[in-house]
Amino acid sequence: MIRGALLRILAIALPLAPALAPEAAIARPADVAGWQAARWGMSEAELDRAFGEALAQLPVSTPGGRWVYGNAYATRYIEQVPLGENDFRALFQMNDDTDRLQQVLLEPQQRARPEATFRDTLDALRATYGPADARCATRLADGTPRLAEYQWRFATTVIHLTFLDFYSTAILFEGKRFGADPLTEDDGFSGANPRFLPRRALVRFHASGRPDLEAAGCTPDAAPPAR
Asked: How far apart are CA 132 and CA 117, in angstroms?
């Protein structure tokens, strides 16, 4: 049941958090054409040619031999992609109707210390793409994850850095054992349940002009405030 909910979430957008550190004056690319050698709309054969032996076949046991993500599926991945101080797994999500690439999802290899992964990944993305264009935070209906996201928007590609909790909407807390919560603006304790909750930081790259891949109910701020 939890896996099914996760797959539905990853198929669309995963919404964001307040600024954690000052946005550095970093040169912003004129555009982002895709993710590494991948371009939106590529077929699996084109991805194979673009990445060669780096691209592997997913170990699948589901009917059809693929991992299903709502209106998309994945059969290919790259096991280890460094981003900042962390390694991620890159999943190539193909559209069900067109069998063409619609999104690249980066999942962290290390599940421990997700707050630190989020902060480090935010720094790494800022260093590559400049200041984030927008952020949003969404509290969904009871029983669904609380999502928070930074967004970088280019003519060809939108990049999302998302922090989410799978089980609880009461995740705005900070405790001495767990470190600072990346979803809070200040350093105070918010009073929510001070348990360690299941959390993850994810990165998504997809084509611009795809509202179906945006976070439902998440209206981005014009720009994250600097601190």
From this structure: 17
Domain extents in the chain: 2-213
H helix or E strand, kind and range, residue 207: strand 199-207
The pTM of this model reads 0.73
How far is Cα 96 from Cα 11, in angstroms, rounded to an integer? 11
Percent helix, strand and coil across the chain, each to the nearest 5: 20, 30, 50
DSSP string, 18-73: ---SPPP--PPPS---EETTEETT--HHHHHHHHGGG-EE----STTSSEEETTEE
Tokens of 143: 């029983």
Interval 12-63: pLDDT, tens: 333 333 333 444 457 899 999 999 999 999 999 999 999 999 999 988 776 6
What pairs with residue 81 in β-bridges?
88
